[in-house]
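Morning - copper (II) ion inputs below, output right after.
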Amino acid sequence: MTENSFKPKSIQVRAGETIVFDVVNKGSLLHEFSFAPPEVAAAHRPEMAMMFEHGMFTPDKIISLTMTMPGGQKMDHTQPNSVIVEPGKSGRIVWKFTKSGALEIACNIPGHFEAGMVGDLKVNR
Ligand SMILES: [Cu+2]
């Protein structure tokens, strides 16, 4: 990952395969590697913006992946299908793809998806 793109931008796997994604951030800002059905990813973006507003992240640092709001509500960014990686570091996701379909790879750090930090992950049968 770098500003603001994924390489490769397209990934193909097979249903039934377990994939180890070792994701390296070669940029100078925080980036996320996540994959989900496009509508799920779209719903996640406003949550991520809220986490930024509440100081869980800065543009280049993870402050905390979980946070309790004053009202007791919990915000959490520890989903198994996403990893947020600081500049110069790497992260890992191990995932077993069970069914075929088209998923979206996205960085949901505010502004990055909009700047084109998006890709596709095709799960073939
Ligand atoms: Cu990014």
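Note: The chain has one domain: 10-124.

O.
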